[in-house]
Design brief:
Strand content: under 5%
Radius of gyration: 15 Å
Shape: flat
Distance between the termini: 18 Å
Order of helices and strands: HHH
Number of helices: 3
Largest sheet: none
Length: about 70
Amino acid sequence: MEAVKELIHYLLNESPHFRKLLKNRITEIKKANIVYTKEINELKAELELLENLIKSRYEDIKFITYRRK
């Protein structure tokens, strides 16, 4: 679990490559010329997710741990 937390912390706070990938995808979505309603809705949802992810901080992440029975 600690390794996962460290990876998420790195991606959200320290990785310029990850942020660049997010920004590039956001730009691609905004430039897309989509006609079909289903695709428009899917891209809007993806855009919202990416924009929220790029704004989020490690402290915003809540971890849920499951205990095995």
